[in-house]
Amino acid sequence: MASMLMNSVRNCSLKSPRAVQFAARSLSTAVPLQAQAKSKKTLSKTGVKNIVLVDGVRTPFLQSGTTYADLMPHDLARTALQGLLNRTGIPKDAVDYIIYGTVIQEVKTSNVAREAALGAGFSDRIPAHTVTMACISSNQAMTTAVGMIAAGQCDAVVAGGVEFMSDVPIRHSRKMRKTMLSLNKAKTLGARLALLGSIRPAHLAPELPAVAEFSTEETMGHSADRLAAAFGVSRREQDEYALRSHSLAKRAQDEGLLSDVVGFKVPGKDIVSKDNGIRPSSMEQMAKLKPAFVKPHGTVTAANSSYLTDGASAVLIMSEEKALALGYKPKAYLRDFVYVSQDPKDQLLLGPSYATPKVLERSGLKLADIDVFEFHEAFAGQILSNLKAMDSDWFAKTYMGRTSKVGSPPLDKFNLWGGSLSLGHPFGATGCRLVTTVAHRLKKEGGQYGLVAACAAGGQGHAMVIEAYPQ
């Protein structure tokens, strides 16, 4: 498919898509001032329970191997939960259920949701479970919460996500594992000595984890490089977009817009209060970096890719009735959502392109109705490829079975407070950050509808429509 995409896309009307013409507009895309709320219809439906986001928090997102290096995943998740308790003031026994998303599990705390909840002081009578769906794990945690509330099983659910890349499980080789398991079962000294004598130097080689697809054995960065080539996304376009992300994140951080971040007193160290991966550079400096995956002619580099990140997030989701009864002023309504999946080899990172038109149709909205867009930025090339795919009638007809394109989100509404490229991407925690950011931006900018979209390993994706709560 990659070669077909490359030839066909370059021949269609994507050579100069409006959404990626950075030179034609200011790179800064200034955050709008407080605007008048738009008088659009509400997405409330008769007979359907309104479900709201009360609030959301996250730990600072830090590059792996830095200040969090000596902690464990449940430490970060516990801190996010404690931050949510402090932010909302909700009684610890008023929550009905807790759900957490994660990708690379720590074997000692495989149900990290439960361990973090107990550590944060929640009642031991509150059930908790952990889900995994690659980079949309906390998205799945949130929508599971929505489903439980919609079904009448719960009134208040905490959802969140955590990822800890500073200490990932590294296994012995399979032969070594089999030997060790057999050694544990051996009943005689002779049997034990025989097993020990069977160990060879090759058995001691560890199995290192890799961010790669099991089905294709290809790293995600390699897939991103091929996708960028297929859609004709140049190295310069990718570097420009990455610079945009870091510049907007730095401004948002300096202006105090990243209010979902809660401080974390790391034992033996200072209080951490800011993301530490936001580093605006220059096009000249970025151009010096060599390709990270497809060498020597690839276009994906460390500068235009998201980095390995430690962090956790948490949100409080309730039925509107329950939230108002407890005296809360919700931040937003959580409306329609969809999950999609497609070919994990050539369309691994195109989840937003497939999910966006579907969720808009479910909501009865058009792209022009959306005031705030927050898309997960795995790679600059991935984002720009999705924008081109969404703006392509050919792609819509050929691969999506649609009669026409959905259109490309305008950059003056798109990821205006930075994104995963700059803020960081703890795999299991990013979804909650996206949703909370949409809620905050809608309030700041006076918009009514926001749209979250993300890709995930396995060729999957997610999108959700969020509606501002009346001011």
N-to-C terminal Cα separation, in Å? 48 Å
Largest sheet descriptor:
10 strands, mixed
What is the CATH level 1 assignment?
Answer: Alpha Beta
What is the mean pLDDT? 92
Give a written overview of the molecule.
Keywords: Acetylation, Acyltransferase, Endoplasmic reticulum, Fatty acid metabolism, Lipid metabolism, Membrane, Mitochondrion, Mitochondrion inner membrane, Mitochondrion outer membrane, Transferase, Transit peptide. It is found in: Endoplasmic reticulum; Mitochondrion inner membrane; Mitochondrion outer membrane. Residues 51-321 form the Thiolase N-terminal domain. Residues 328-467 form the Thiolase C-terminal domain. This protein is 35% helix and 15% strand. It is an alpha+beta fold and 471 residues long. It has a single domain, classed as Peroxisomal Thiolase, Chain A, domain 1. A hairpin with a 3-residue loop joins strand 11 (449-456) and strand 12 (460-468).
Task: Name its key features.
single chain, 471 residues, alpha+beta, Peroxisomal Thiolase, Chain A, domain 1, 10-stranded mixed sheet, two-stranded antiparallel ribbon, 35% helix, globular, disordered N terminus
